[in-house]
Write a structure and sequence with these properties.
This is Glycoside hydrolase. It is a single chain. This protein is of the alpha/beta class and 487 residues long. The protein is built from eleven helices and 24 strands. The chain starts with a helix and ends in a 13-residue tail after the last helix. The longest helix has 18 residues, at 344-361. Strand 2 and strand 3 form a beta hairpin. The strands form six sheets. It has an eight-stranded parallel barrel. It has helices spanning 2-10, 150-164, 185-191, 204-217, 255-264, 283-287, 316-328, 344-361, 396-410, 431-441, 459-474; strands spanning 17-20, 27-30, 36-40, 42-46, 50-55, 60-61, 80-81, 85-87, 102-104, 110-113, 123-126, 131-136, 141-145, 181-183, 223-226, 268-273, 277-279, 292-297, 304-310, 334-337, 366-369, 382-384, 415-418, 447-450.
Length: 487
């Protein structure tokens, strides 16, 4: 071992220590000329403030990189990179669907960071040709596998990380977590006739009519989630609703009765909350101004938006406990959390506090998030495949496949929500595309979610959706990712 360390130093890889791991991971570390240094089981590299360079083949699959240009929006190309970049996967914003801090190249080489220690300076830099430079600061560790079997390497990485982070894969879960889910979001958007109207359509009667339609279809009963628009907008703006997690009495004169109605119709109440955001005019900010944190940067360099992130130094756990218990006491058993695309390292503390608060209230509450990252996985029950637009301007099928892959591979041992059959762009949905999207979810691990009501797109959509839901209901109902090596 000492001779290998000396050789690595001479080769210019700096001071890197190595630790043995499972035989599932066999690696061949190379220098810049592509010469093999060694091939054995030692694949964890411990950094001491140095860099390593490895040969890679583009495109590089970067599951953490969910930031897109307007031209890429709606597809999946921004996960597959062939041009030069420098990324810190811990400090990028998680815009929509951000996975683990790993990279897999076109030939199956696999690289992954293994600790949050030194995350500020843990970076991947690609020269756009054939070299990936990895900054491995003191305290950081790197998993490196050049065997060419990227998925097996990723499984090995997950298995090691689950032990390190004390992530116990779910084996048995509350029955209702596996149920089909219905969510109001895309139906709100479909019925909207003008900008932002969908935030104002959600009422007690809206929920009743929606459920009655599901019952009329003869679909299996399951969870019923109220999405964005059930809460207060104190200054009249939608943004002031962030931090105002109190039911709007004009829309819901008695929110508890709405939850009771959902239960009486045979469904489990669920609720969307955009928890990490807060507005200065929100109810929470008025009562607890210390919750106000950094601003979200606006579209111009010299402009700040009027929404802020929660202050990570405030008592987020206490705030989360207050919010979750308020609705748990009204009968809500599932929370759909919108993590709102903040910097991942900042979101992690918010994520942990919210999850821990919910589980201390009732361990059976289902907590669903959209950050399927191994460092977040301990603090999540379900991850959703999140926002897809069936718009022909985009490679939407690629997006469906990649979002599922990231959920399945970056959150091992947790459930998957196959989010929004038909997608979120209700103006782009046709019968053909609705059915194509539905077909892509068949035989996938995860529970189905219906949002926009399928009768808008024809009788065939109603019938095919029903057949899919009942096949799921009568089947194994396997929602858990098994993307790790099980003992």
């Amino acid at each position: 071992m000492s001779s290998r360390r000396n050789f690595l130093k001479k080769a210019g890889l700096g001071s890197l220590a190595m630790a043995s791991v499972s035989s599932h991971a066999i690696t061949e570390l190379t220098n810049l000329n592509g010469q093999a240094f060694f091939q054995n089981k030692e694949t964890i590299l411990k950094g001491e403030g140095k860099q390593i360079h490895i040969k890679v083949t583009a495109p590089l699959f970067c599951p953490y990189h969910s930031l897109s240009t307007p031209a890429e929006k709606g597809g999946n190309s921004y996960y597959y990179l062939s041009t030069p970049f420098t990324h810190n996967p811990f400090t990028l914003e998680a815009s929509g669907m951000s996975g683990s801090p790993v990279i897999k190249d076109a030939k199956g080489k696999f690289i992954g960071f293994m600790t949050m220690h030194g995350f500020e300076n843990s970076t991947y830099s690609y020269d756009g040709k054939k070299t990936l430079t990895i900054n491995v600061p003191e305290g950081q560790e790197l998993f490196l596998d050049e065997s060419g079997n990227g998925d097996e390497a990723w499984k090995a990485y997950n298995t090691i990380m689950m032990k390190r982070l004390n992530i116990n894969p779910y084996k048995q879960i509350p029955k209702f977590w596996q149920d089909v889910e219905y969510c109001t979001w895309s139906e709100q958007k479909y019925l909207s006739t003008k900008r932002h109207e969908h935030f104002h359509l959600l009422t007690h009667d809206f929920v009743k009519k929606y459920l009655d339609k599901i019952i009329e279809y003869g679909y299996p009963k399951g969870k019923m989630t109220l999405d964005h628009g059930w809460g207060m907008f104190p200054d009249g703006s939608v943004n002031s609703g962030f931090g105002s997690w109190v039911p709007n009495p004009e829309k819901f004169p008695n929110f508890r009765k709405t939850m009771d109605m959902i239960n009486e119709k045979g469904f489990t109440p669920g609720l969307w909350i955009g928890f990490p955001k807060i507005h200065k005019n929100s109810l929470a900010a008025q009562q607890y101004p210390e919750l106000l944190g950094n601003f979200i940067q606006g579209s111009k360099a010299d402009r700040k938006d009027d929404i802020q992130w929660l202050n990570g130094k405030s008592d987020i756990f206490e705030y989360a406990t207050e919010v979750i218990s308020r609705f748990y006491n009204m009968g809500v058993m599932k929370f759909k959390i919108d993590m709102s695309y903040n910097t991942k390292s900042d979101m992690l503390d918010i994520h942990k506090a919210l999850y821990k608060a919910a589980k201390l209230i009732d361990k059976n509450i289902e907590m669903e998030f959209h950050v399927p990252d191994i460092f977040f996985t301990k603090y999540v029950d379900v991850v959703r495949t999140n926002d897809v637009w069936l718009n022909d301007k985009y490679n939407w099928k690629g997006r469906v496949k990649t979002h599922y892959e990231i959920c399945y591979k970056s959150a091992p041992g947790r459930g998957i929500n196959l989010d929004h059959i038909g997608g979120n762009d209700t103006g782009a949905i046709t019968e053909k595309k609705f059915l194509e999207h539905l077909e892509m979810y068949k035989n996938k691990k995860g529970y189905p979610l219906v949002s926009v009501l399928p009768h808008h797109f024809g009788k065939k959509c109603v019938e095919k959706t029903g057949a899919y839901l009942w096949d799921y209901e009568k089947g194994a109902k396997n929602i858990l990712s098994d993307f790790y090596h099980q003992e």
